[in-house]
Amino acid sequence: MYLFNTEIVCNQKLSPNIFRLRLKATKDFCREAAPGKFVMLGTDDSLFDPLLRRPFGICRWGEDWFEVVIKIVGKGSCQLSRLESGGAVAIHGPLGNGYPKDQLESVQKPLFLVAGGMGIASIASHIFSALDSKQSLAGTFLFYGAASYSELILRNELTAATAIGLHIHTITDDGSCGRQGLVTQLLATELQNQPQGRVFACGPEPMLKSVQNVLQKVGSEGYISLENRMACGFGVCLGCVQTVLSEDSKSGVETAKVCTQGPVFPAQEVVF
Amino acid sequence: MVDLKVEIAPGVILKNPVLTASGTFGYGREYAPYFDISKLGAIITKGLSLQPKTGNPGVRITETACGMLNAIGLENIGVERFLADELPILRKLKAVVIVNIFGNNQSDYAALAAKLDGIAGITALEINISCPNVKAGGIQFGTDPQAAAKLVAAVRKETSLPLITKLSPNVSDIVAVAKAVEEAGSDSLSLINTLLGMAIDLDQKRPILGNVTGGLSGPAIKPVALRMVYQVAQAVSIPVIGIGGIVSARDALEFLLAGATAIEVGTASFINPQTASKIVEGIENYLDDQGCDRITDFIGSLEKNPI
After folding, report:
1. By residue range, what is the domain housing residue A150?
2. Please, which pLDDT band fits residue B306 given cuts at 50, 70 and 90?
3. How far apart are CA B58 and CA B236, in angstroms?
4. Which residues of A touch B270 (CB under 8 A)?
5. CB A53 to CB B271 under 8 A?
6. Which of A48, A235, A240 sits opposite B26 (nearest CB)?
7. Does residue A37 belong to the interface with chain B, where contact is any CB pair within 8 Å?
8. How does pLDDT run across B91-133, given as a tens digit for each residue?
9. Within this chain, do residues A181 and A123 fall inside the same structural domain, yes or no?
């Protein structure tokens, strides 16, 4: 993990309130980047308002750049979304454990990727990683749900991955694109047909809970990536902790730091 | 080059006046990948209790204007695990270690002090009588001068380690609490802990923090902290350690001018883990530029006349 100041290469508006930032990065940083890892991103540290850096999944990266996708939800994301090419940013990362590589790259397919809303930024990191390193995604299914058509982002880039075997199914809450409904409905149907499939999911907590239920019913394995609030990103503030099952603890549960022990956890270990 | 050594309690001479505030520096080793933590005056651990504590449920942190609210609830691994797993690492890293302690009642504090007495690698204890986030976090002692004094006296009996008492700003007269704990045998004082605050989600019409209220920290509280340090430093004869919204060397130097012998860096370490070490460098550079030989000449040298 590294700490450095850098600048924006470009900022692209993906929807009325979602932006993709490409940032310059060191080669060392890019070598450590992996699907599911994240960065703490801030603007000028001397202004203190917003005070804390914000966590964002590393969505895509090259030799000396990486991208994050930002939805405006408050002051921090709003300020970052307004940055233009050349704008100054401070980086801390890559942080977190990321998706387990052996599981992602296992030849035992199928692989079910489940993204809800902004969870696509994390899930897409595996797809782009495969695309950029010319690996096959045969047997990989993306179930991608969002509130409406305008929030289904990165459509062209994801579609490009169909050339290396990715199957894409989209669904929206309002039916404005793909089927109307919840992304976990797509997952439940497909898992019943192929219960040996491994599941990787990122999205809002209600969606992750539902993924957990689907997995439990079918008896399949999976991993979920959490998005808890955090102040530091490196294991000291204890703001992001999540209750997880523990064999060591008398009560059977303990708290885990989402930043350093996660953000990716085996789905059945998380206690919502 | 300026001599940065300060004496934060009788016989406790630190290489510089920069410490880390409890609860923002983990158990210390989390920062080792970012800088050499032995370069700091001292590190103060996350508050320790006799038994491990899981902390508060629900949302624990939320940002506010130039600050943040936290309601962690004193989550910690407990004193036994600290001694077994963490202290040896800190010793290997050559950090100067001050252990922050808290309990549910006076006998918990006394037992912790007794347990930590004489353990190699511990330089002093900081007694937390000021956490606003849990009922049993010491705050019941910290808001009453007599209760605070009684607690400090009880801890004093159990240990020969130097005692720093960490004071709460959530009182009407912090000077009264400061004088009372000085009288009771505290070797020095650290202030301020967080200010009790609250955040509301307007659209959901609900409190944001799981604990409803939380402790405010960050640059937003610096003026309050500076005022309290200034008042307390004039009223007591033991060293005062300034805490509250310090993010830069200039902030730290303002506290020293106001009479603090040392300072603690807190929330700023979350933003950039190297902040405390940068503050050491910044203080050194500033005082060198001023032609100051000893930092002790600078401490408390605030002019009386306002600008």
Report:
1. 101-224
2. very high
3. 40
4. 52, 231-232, 236-237
5. yes
6. A235
7. no
8. 999 999 999 999 988 999 999 999 999 999 999 999 999 766 6
9. yes
At A95, phi and psi to the nearest 5?
-120, 160
d(CA B285, CA B299): 16
Q: Name which of A45, A49, A235 is nearest B272 (Cβ-Cβ).
A: A45
Please check whether residues A242 and A198 belong to one and the same domain: no
**Across the interface, do A75 and B218 touch by the CB < 8 Å criterion?**
no
Q: What is the pLDDT of residue B227?
A: 98
Residue A52: other Cβ atoms inside 10 A: 25
% of chain A with per-residue pLDDT over 90: 85
Is the CB of residue B43 less than 8 Å from the CB of residue B34? no
Instruction: Summarize the confidence of residues B224-242 as an average pLDDT.
Output: 98
Q: How many CB pairs lie under 8 A apart between chains A and B?
A: 80
Q: How many domains are there within chain A? A: 3
Residue B62 at interface with chain A, using a CB cutoff of 8 Å: yes
- Specify the residue for token string 């001018």: B257
Indicate the pLDDT class of residue B136, thresholds 50, 70 and 90: low
CA distance A100 to chain B (A): 23
Residues B61, A76 contacting (CB under 8 angstroms): no
Is residue A83 located within the same domain as residue A197? Answer: no
B269 at interface of A, judged by CB pairs closer than 8 A: yes
CB B153 within 8 A of CB B185: yes
Inter-chain residue contact B72 with A50, CB threshold 8 Å = no
CA distance A84 to chain B (A): 22
Q: What is the mean pLDDT of residues B8-18?
A: 97
Q: Tokens in use for A86?
A: 């050349």
For the cut 70, the answer to whether the pLDDT of residue B134 exceeds it is no
What is the complex's ipTM, to 2 decimals? 0.92
CA distance B46 to chain A (A): 9
CB of A231 less than 8 A from some CB of B: yes
Burial A211-220 (b: 16+ CB within 10 A, else e): bbebbeebeb
Residues A125 and A203 in one domain: yes
Query: How long is chain B?
Result: 307
Other CB atoms within 10 A of residue A201 CB: 29
What would the pLDDT profile of B257-303 be if each residue is shown by its tens digit?
999 999 999 999 999 999 999 999 999 999 999 999 999 999 999 99
The beta-carbon neighbor of A3 closest among B72, B219, B274 is: B274
| Confidence grade of residue A179 (pLDDT, cut at 50, 70, 90) | confident
Q: Which of B55, B248, B274 sits opposite A238 (nearest CB)?
A: B55
For chain B, domains (ranges, CATH) are 6-298 (3.20.20.70)
pLDDT given at position B130: 79
Shortest distance, CA B195 to any CA of chain A (angstroms)? 17
> Residue B13, Cβ neighbours under 10 Å: how many?
11
pLDDT, mean over chain A: 94
Q: Is B292 a catalytic residue?
A: no
Asked if A254 lies within 8 A of B54 by C-beta distance, the reply is yes
